[in-house]
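Changelog-linked ticket: pseudouridine-5'-monophosphate example.
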Amino acid sequence: MMLYTHSPEVAAALDAGRAVVALESTIITHGMPWPRNLDTARQVEQAVRDAGAVPATIAVLEGQLHIGLTDAALEQLARSKAVAKLSRADMAVCMAEGRTGATTVAATMIAAALAGIEVFATGGIGGVHKGAETSFDISADLQELAATRVSVIAAGAKAILDLPKTLEVLETLGVPVIAYGQDALPAFWSRDSGLKAPLRMDSPDQIARAHRMRARLDLPGGQLIANPIPLDAEIPLGDLAPIIAQATADADALGISGKAVTPFLLQRIFDLTGGASLEANIALVLNNARLGAAVAVALTALKT
Ligand code: PSU
Ligand code: MN
């Protein structure tokens, strides 16, 4: 059995040297409720196509790593209840045992790099959780950004995290954190975290050139592009802060830990905002898909 399979659309794009954007599947299975998850996954793929690139949604289906999913596979994944959430630690085990799993940012980066895809768009990366000084809960996404050469377009790190600590760890790991079109680090549902991003860029071409330069310097690891949510879709951080505090306290009280923390917090914030957080999440993912496509197109222009 091949290590991975391409969808026909992705195989044709890679053969032709066309721009391809990787997309993750944990956001579908653990990040959004049915049926909006399927609807969003389809819209995100279409946003990539409309911006001139080809989407490659990545997942492990019955042991096989898929780079690009058919619409039927996308729907099956979106409907499934008991799918594993795969990161660097458990991706190989899932594949070796023939099981099905959705890929997080870390696992999607590994798969994208394997398939020669340099750009990946998602919602928000994992990071250092609040209380990490006692829980040690730091997402494997951060180490992956240091190790695997894929540029990740996200709306910053999720605001449920400790953002100053997340920035410190990324700096230690040598990961460039680049705010797009503004100085402030965005905070997922909000445009401004109150923190200044270490770097700023204003065009897809700049991002593509920096990505190429890392390769020329033989630097492992990718770039984190922090793309602010569109103004009309944002929930200001002031409105969200008490809700995040409540959701975090609930997670602590219930003893939620490990992989379950992020999905629990996203669901709790969905409930506490009456669903508004989901609308914002969808808007920011679409916005990231469009920028990801523009960066992938800029990269193909650099090659020639
Ligand atoms: N972006 C979203 N929703 C999500 C995620 C990203 O808009 O659910 C997922 C990604 O797969 C990311 C994961 O890797 O959340 C972080 O999980 P953890 O904190 O357990 O590392
Ligand atoms: Mn964690």
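Closing comment: Example verified and attached. The chain has a mean pLDDT of 97. Residues 137, 139, 261 surround manganese (II) ion (ligand 2) (CB under 6 Å).
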